[in-house]
Fold:
Amino acid sequence: MNESLTNKINIFLTVDLQTINSYFNAHDPAPLYKRQLCHQFEQYIMNSVKSARRFSIIFYKLKCTNDIDEQFAEPLLYAVRRHFSEKKQISQTDFKRFKRRTLILLMFSLFIIILCHGLMPILLNPDNHVQSIIITSLDVLSWVMLWRPIDKLIFEWNPHLKEISILNKLATAEMMIVERKKETNRKSNSMLFAISQTG
Structure:
C-alpha cells in the first residue's frame, strides 16, 4: 500500500438527528457524551484504521450540514475518545499481564533446566544406556520448555504495542467538520460572484 495513504487516515462520520443515535447502544440511558458505542460503529472505526502505522495521523471528519447537527459533534467525539481511552487502558493492563506471565514462565523453564542439568547427572550414571536416554530426553524437554517463552518475548510484543498505539491515536485524534466548511466556501463564492456581477 502506498505510504501516503497510510500516513494520514480519515474516519468519516455523518452527524445529524437521524444518524446520531445509531452510533450508540440503544439500551444505554446515559447522556449522549457518556453512552456506550454500539458494536457496529466500533467495528467501522477499527476497520478504518487497519492500515495505520506507527507514524500515521488519524482525523475524525464529521459531516454536519447545519448548526443544529454541529451541536452533536462534540458530545459524539467525547464519547468516542472516552471509549477508546478506556480500551487503551485495558490493552495496557493486558500487555503488563502478558509480560509478567511470560517472564514467570521463562524463570520456571530456567529453573527446570538447572534442575535437570545440575541435579540429574549427579543422581544418574551416564555410562548406563537407559539413564543416558533419560538425560538426553531431559535436554530436549528443557529446550522445548525454553522455546515458547523466548519466542513470546521476542516476537509477540509488537501486536500489543501496535494495538495500544492505535487506541491511543483514536483516543486523541483531532476532529474536523468538513461539510460546514464547504457550505461556508460556497456562500463566500456566491457572495463574490454577486459582487462581481453588481460591480
In short: The first strand starts at residue 8 and ends at 14.
